[in-house]
Amino acid sequence: MQLGHFFEEVAKLQLRARIGCRQQGDLTVTLVPSHKVGYAIPIDKNGCSRSPRHMSRLAALCLWFVLSLSWSNVQVPGHARAGTAPLAATIAQASSTTPASAAKAAIDGNRFATDPTHSWQGTPAERCWWWQVRFPQERTIGAILQIQGDHAAVFRNAPRHYLWQASLDGQAWQDLKETEVTNERRLFRIHRLSKPCQARFLRLSILKVEGTFPTLREVEFFADARAAIPFGEWIIAVDTTGESKVPRHGDAFIPLARSCKGWQGLQAQQLCHRDFDEAFVAAEPRPLCVFLSGNFKDWCQQHRADWRGTQEVLTKRNLPMWAACGGAQGLAILSEVGVDKPWDCPHCRDPKNPRLPIYTHIGHTGVKPCGDYSCCLFERGPHNVLQVADDPVFQGLPREFKSVESHCGQIEWPPKGWMLIASNGSGSQTKTQCLRVKNRYIYAAQFHIEMAGAPESSRQIMSNFLKLARDWGGYNPNGKAVVSPELLSGAEQRR
């Protein structure tokens, strides 16, 4: 009897900690240490068992109950979003939870907060994890919105291999096969079922993570598999330097975009270019546009395979793109040569058999090995850029404007299907300053709008580009060709 009394006290502490020790009425505490078991114990308003016969049962479940102290089992208020399944009286649970987070926080209606108090985080060093909800009654599930990761713009400490499961009783589980992702890279994802299912319980089963633990920032449920799920515009920033971790080069595009009038709430994700491909951008919710950073390696030293995904996105031409410096050179090279043929650089080039004649250096003062730029001529800092075509991305700027340069390499001519829209202004050397795909809002700029030094022109170009991307419809496989800009008086196209 003493042992039973001990566990009554444990139950009382658990009750007060998890649901606030309500002072009136009887409650039922449900212990769910795994998806296979569950046990309901009637507890009175003082947190004690209503019947002595429950004492032995409570003692028999002591191990399960102690383990459950680290789990979340909480009733939370719902939040209102158009088309979502109402979450009033919905209970959230998890296999484990860090002290600063809570299972219920993943359904608190705060989509983008990264503070642990507004997310669920599983404890590190586990082999697998799960997070689940129990609805007050059975309901239809057709679509799920999932927002994850503990960084606002980087996929980090997030589920990488996972699967959603549904159950009517919390014991027999059905895999929702359309929701399985084996190599997740996105912060935001919408899962749509081929056929809506009925469920009282929904569980996210997590087999692998990126980082050391999983983080769910927000989960929302929709009855209609074809529901229009409202989601704000968001952008992608791609680091093309070849580094394996972000945030790094290229993340400056994000604050520049948010500094533009009307774009302060823009969401973003940064990733490495080896993770960027058509599958990434085609998944829902779909991005508004992508920005590609510059890089530091010469093209003979690049891993061509890492650019295959970018080539795929460029070839499909479903997404507005802005590339700077090395990223711009990359788009030109992909359009002219592709990733399946070898690349060279001016240092190692065979003049009689050049592999990348479209790419050159401004000049040299000596002979150095590949990757050594100490004898290369550079353009650095603010330089004059001259518009040679009436392109809407330069709307509001004078014909000659300043932008920041930082390069020794350059593009020699527009590839097939591209056109030159900006060249060197007074005092500048690099003639190919900005290219554009003729019938798409895809730009390759040798200059850097994301670098400090020419804030007025940078913000104007960014604002114009974001508007063009919105007009196009963001990622839009049904987008129609846009009109090519007209050449300005006295302008010539190279090659």
Characterization of the model:
- This protein folds into three domains: 2-68, no CATH class; 73-222, Galactose-binding domain-like (Jelly Rolls, Sandwich), CATH 2.60.120.260; 234-472, 3-Layer(aba) Sandwich (Rossmann fold).
- It starts with a helix and ends in a 23-residue tail after the last helix.
- It is built from eight helices and 21 strands.
- The chain has a nine-stranded mixed beta sheet with strand order 12-11-13-14-21-20-19-16-17, with helices on both faces.
- It has helices at residues 2-19, 53-60, 62-68, 253-258, 278-282, 308-316, 326-336, 455-472, and strands spanning 27-34, 37-43, 73-76, 90-94, 120-121, 129-148, 158-167, 174-181, 188-210, 215-222, 234-239, 267-272, 289-292, 321-324, 359-361, 379-387, 400-407, 409-411, 418-424, 434-437, 442-445.
- With 495 residues, the protein is of the alpha+beta class.
Instruction: Give the domain tally.
Output: 3
Low-confidence stretches: 1-80
Helix percent band:
10-25%
Q: Cα-atom Rg, whole angstroms?
A: 28 Å
Oligomer: single chain
Listing every helix as H and every strand as E from the N terminus to the C terminus, the arrangement reads HEEHHEEEEEEEEEHEHEHEHEEEEEEEH
CATH architectural label of the largest domain? 3-Layer(aba) Sandwich
Terminal CA distance: 93 Å
- CATH class call of the largest domain: Alpha Beta
Remind me, CATH topology of the largest domain? Rossmann fold
Question: If strands are numbered along the chain, what order do they take across the biggest sheet?
Answer: 12-11-13-14-21-20-19-16-17
Number of helices: 8
> Tally of extended strands?
21
Mean pLDDT: 86
**Sheet of most strands:** 9 strands, mixed
**CATH superfamily placement of the largest domain:** Class I glutamine amidotransferase (GATase) domain
Strand content: 25-35%
Described by the principal axes of the CA atoms, the overall outline is elongated
Secondary-structure-derived class: alpha+beta
